[in-house]
């Protein structure tokens, strides 16, 4: 793979408390970072957008193809002990975040697994916007892990009824690609349809962090 370093996944440690997740750094090959930064889509809307709504080109388009490809799914299948090849994937991309995003949630039951790949050059500790692995749906301060959303960081978790996560408010540029392995193609189609709803509905969905996509991370 030209852009993804699969050894970052192989060498990462899987955690099972409070739920199953993997945190890895340097998923993206260092010598391709400048090209990936250059080709990141020019997105004006806040929130997560599907790839159908975003103009993909160059190295970034190639990155999406590699993230959606069988090689990465195979490594993650081995890591989690679950055959992910059987599940369709839904890819969404965010560039701009709003303070109302980050509410604590578990992701919807149509999701099997979620992977986040962050693409920000740097991130200050006190800025907010750092995903937290949480123990319940009410308490941001009691967390197992805080994920720095910097270039090449990958956070992947199996969806469950206790896969609580969220982040403190942040407004501004927060670049992240999300790949969700979903139970059926019908779920993918439904979620895409929700995201392509009219302006009024779109505004409502993004106001709660694109809840119908389960994309409040």
Tag the structure with descriptive keywords.
alpha+beta, seven-stranded antiparallel sheet, disordered C terminus, three-stranded antiparallel sheet, 6 helices, globular, 217 residues
Characterise this structure:
25% of the residues lie in helices and 24% in strands. By secondary structure, it is an alpha+beta fold. Helix 2 crosses helix 3. Residues 198-216 have low confidence and may be disordered.
Structure in a nutshell:
By secondary structure, this protein is α+β, with helices and mostly antiparallel strands.
Topology:
Elements: H1 6-11, E1 14-15, E2 21-24, H2 33-39, E3 48-50, H3 58-67, H4 70-80, E4 89-97, E5 111-118, E6 131-134, E7 143-147, E8 154-158, E9 165-166, E10 172-182, H5 185-195, H6 199-207
Antiparallel strand pairs: 1-2, 2-8, 3-4, 4-10, 5-8, 5-10, 6-7, 6-9
Helix pairs in contact: 2-3
């Amino acid at each position: 793979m030209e852009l993804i370093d699969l050894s970052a996944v192989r060498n990462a440690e899987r955690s099972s408390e409070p739920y199953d997740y993997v945190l890895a750094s340097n998923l993206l090959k260092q010598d391709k970072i400048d090209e990936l930064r250059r080709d990141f889509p020019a997105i004006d809307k806040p929130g997560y957008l599907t790839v159908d709504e975003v103009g993909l080109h160059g190295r970034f388009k190639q990155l999406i193809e590699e993230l959606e490809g069988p090689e990465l799914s195979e490594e993650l299948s081995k890591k989690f002990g679950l055959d992910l090849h059987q599940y369709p994937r839904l890819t969404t991309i965010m560039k701009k975040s709003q303070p109302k995003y980050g509410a604590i949630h578990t992701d919807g039951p149509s999701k099997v697994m979620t992977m986040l790949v962050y693409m920000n050059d740097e991130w200050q500790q006190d800025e907010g916007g750092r995903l937290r692995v949480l123990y319940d749906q009410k308490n941001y301060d009691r967390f197992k892990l805080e994920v720095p959303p910097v270039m090449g960081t990958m956070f992947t978790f199996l969806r469950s009824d206790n896969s609580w996560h969220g982040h403190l408010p942040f407004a501004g540029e927060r670049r992240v690609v999300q790949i969700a392995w979903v139970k059926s193609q019908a779920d993918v189609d439904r979620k895409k349809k929700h995201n392509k709803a009219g302006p009024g509905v779109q505004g409502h969905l993004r106001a709660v962090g694109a809840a119908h996509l389960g994309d409040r991370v």
